[in-house]
Amino acid sequence: MRRTGDLKLIQELNRFIILDTIRQHGPISRSDIAKKQGISPTTVTSAVNELIRDGLVVEDGTGASKGGRKPILVRFCPDGQFLIGVSITNTAITIAELNLEAAIRQKSVYPVGPGMQGESVVGHVIDAIGDFLGRVGDVSKCLGISVISPGIVDAYSGVIRFNSKLQLKDVPLKDKVEARFGLKTWLDNDANAIVLAEKNFGVGMGAENLLFVTIGEGVGSGLVVNGSIFRGSRGGAGELGHTTVDRAGMRCDCGNVGCLENYVGWPAVYTSVLSAITRGKETLALELAGGDMSRISPEVFRTALQQGDQVCQDIVEEMASYLSIGIVNLVNLFNPSLIILGGELMRDNQLLFARIQKQVKEQAMSIMTEGLEFRSTALGADFEVKAAAAVLLQEVFHFSL
Question: DSSP letters along 134-184, please?
């Protein structure tokens, strides 16, 4: 005798399959869904009725007759419900309302003040979500809240295990958000979320062994190994920024010495620009910032670089040499078929992309680079909240990862 729990699971899996079939192939008739997936017409009809009731699917005209009445077609309705995506970084909390195709409806940025760490950061995140939900108003059609954060994150338990910059340790953020707002919540590492987005609706579709590297405030990576995200035993896989590139180097917040992100993350890049200015070197970065060194941002840096600024070009050359060391190690360890480069410092930065590609192919084992492709992320400037959306949409559409 089939247990009730087994039957409920089968029904839920069928619902996932039917919804994803409509999303990918709609407008489509109920009978064609049944034939395509080998599911009984009665089951399809019941599931489609539920999906229409929930606002995920709508009827959309009629199809060609195959001998009887014209079938009624159904299609996916991405605006029938919505989700809240939250991206935590070391300097800001970005929150967006997105539809079910990760299109942004509205977005707000809440700065993380200097020196804000530990419980004050957690409180700030909760308050920011509360403020944003107040702007959204009616949350009856909200599927949930998806939060991503740098650092070591246990996605299964919803706990930030460790973030050195924000001084977060064993923070049950998922439970805290759910308890405060009563909305189902997901939590994942930011690089893992981005690689999930790339694999499912970005430039990584079809890749079974994929490496994503993000360069911004820090450095992180996400790995897809044999079609699945590689998380490690406690969610700590992919901490590329905390691999050692200089044993005689500076002490990192994590306690190690010579960590990669202390040489190529934005704080290090910003320090290099300021150092060049104090040594009397001329740079467009200062001019673009209106002569105010405090206004030199990653965007200003990239603009100066694109305009041929020598100081910025020299910094990029040094960044590439350090990054290549870390990426070569990952190539030799995991043998990916595709490397995607992204993050705030990589966006619109063809020089850095080209240098990394060239040096990795020269330095990694030659057999590991046969057929190895490099691509820039295609998720755009809002990649962080879109990545957060991907974590939740994986549950809705039952993605394979």
Answer: HHH---TTEEEEEEEESSEEETTTTEEEEETTTTEEEE-HHHHHHHHH-S-
Whole-angstrom distance, CA of residue 390 vs CA of residue 226 = 19
C-alpha radius of gyration, the chain, whole number = 23
Residue 389: closest CA among 147, 42, 66, 176: 147
SS3 212: strand
Burial annotation 199-228 (CB, 10 A radius, 16+ → b, else e): bbbbbbeebeebbbbbbbbbbbbbbbbeee
* Beta pairing partners, 224: 210, 229
Residue 19, SS3 per DSSP: helix
In this prediction the pTM is 0.85
Counting beta carbons within 10 angstroms of the beta carbon of residue 329, is it exposed (0 to 12), middle (13 to 18) or buried (19 or more)? Answer: middle
> By C-alpha distance, which of 336, 288, 324 is closest to 309?
288
User: What is the spatial distance between Cα 111 and Cα 128, in angstroms, rounded to a whole number?
Assistant: 10
Using one digit for the tens of pLDDT, what is the confidence trace for 337-388? 999 999 999 999 999 999 999 999 999 999 999 999 999 998 888 889 999 9
| Structure token digits, residue 244 | 């050692």
For residue 129, which amino acid is it? I
3-class state of residue 327 by DSSP: helix
- List pLDDT tens digits, range 117-166: 999 999 999 999 999 999 998 999 999 999 999 999 999 999 999 998 89
The CA–CA distances, whole Å, from 336 to 125, 236, 326, 333 equal 35, 19, 14, 9
Place of tokens 């305009």: 307
Strands 228-229 and 219-225: antiparallel
Return the SS3 of 200: helix
